[in-house]
């Protein structure tokens, strides 16, 4: 494989990653900023009280921040590996690290 072919393949991969990130952002059930606040809130609160294997803290955050369609957010979180508060922080937050 010559230098031009490597460069072309890298460009294709970069474009694919960019397209995947754009699709990810478009399909979020709430704003990215709200997710970032949720992760910060969970990080702080879980450090103090630990996880009770529910998404109680997430539900409180959604309610307290008057998030529209909380059921859709909870469903999306579960579909992305967040079945309880600590899993939301562990499994879902990493999807936002780009």
Main sheet? none
Mean of all residue-level pLDDT scores: 93
How many strand units?
0
Question: What is the end-to-end distance?
Answer: 29 Å
Shape: elongated
Task: Please state the CA-atom Rg, rounded to the nearest Å.
Answer: 17 Å
Tally of helical runs = 5
Report the portion of residues in β strands: under 5%
Question: Class by helix and strand content?
Answer: mainly alpha
SSE order in H/E notation? HHHHH
The stretches of 5 or more residues where confidence is low (pLDDT under 50) are: none
Considering DSSP H and I runs of 4 or more, what fraction of the residues is helical?
A: over 70%
Can you tell me about this structure?
The longest helix has 24 residues, at 3-26. The protein contains five helices and no strands. The chain starts with a helix and ends in a 6-residue tail after the last helix. The chain is mainly α. The chain is elongated and about 55 Å long. The model has no long low-confidence stretch (mean pLDDT 93).
Which features does this protein show?
single chain, mainly alpha, 0% strand
Provide a concise account of the structure shown.
By secondary structure, this protein is an all-alpha fold.
């Amino acid at each position: 494989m010559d230098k031009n072919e490597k460069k072309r393949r890298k460009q294709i991969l970069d474009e694919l990653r960019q397209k995947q990130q754009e699709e990810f952002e478009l399909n979020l059930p709430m704003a990215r900023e709200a997710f970032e606040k949720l992760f910060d809130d969970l990080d702080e609160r879980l450090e103090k009280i630990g996880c009770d294997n529910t998404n109680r803290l997430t539900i409180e955050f959604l309610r307290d921040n008057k998030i529209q369609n909380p059921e859709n957010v909870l469903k999306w979180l579960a579909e992305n590996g967040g079945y309880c508060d600590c899993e939301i922080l562990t499994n879902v937050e990493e999807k936002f690290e780009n």
